[in-house]
Amino acid sequence: MVTQEEYNAVNSDLTDAKNDLKDIQKQISNEKEAVKESEPPTVEENKEDSATDHEKENSDNATSTETFIEGSASESITVTFNITPGMSSEAISKLLEEKGIIPDASEFNQYVIDTGNVNNLQIGEYEVKSGESYDTIMGKLTKSE
C-alpha cells in the first residue's frame, strides 16, 4: 500500500516532469522556428517566383536568350557535379534541379533542345553557381565558355 505522503511526492514529481517537458517542447519549437527563418527558400518555393520572373523577363525582352535563375550573387551556392557517359539532357537537367542550380528541369531541358545543344553536352566534372544564366551553364556543359 502507498501512503498519502508517498502518493503526493510521486504526484508532485510527475507534475514537475510534465512542466519540464512542456518547457523543452516550447524551446525546441522556438529553435526550429529560428532555424526555419534563417534557411534560404527551397527550390519548390523558388519555382513559383522564378516562373513569374521568367515570364516577365520574356515579355520585357523577347529577343533575349538568357534565362536567369532567382537569387542574387550573395545568395548563390556553388555545386560540383559530374556528367557521366550516357547521361541524357533530361537526366542532366534533373540533376541540376536536384542540386538546386535550376528551378525547373523540364524548362532547362527544353532550353537545351531549343538551342540545339542536346548532342554538345560533354562528360566531366563541373562547378556551377546557382543564379547563373542558362547560357552560362550551357557554356560550361558544352565547354564552349
From TrEMBL:
Protein name: Endolytic transglycosylase MltG
Compositional bias (Polar residues): 1-14, 60-71
Biological classification of the source: Bacteria, Bacillati, Bacillota, Clostridia, Lachnospirales
Compositionally skewed regions (Basic and acidic residues) per UniProt: 15-59
Region (Disordered): 1-71
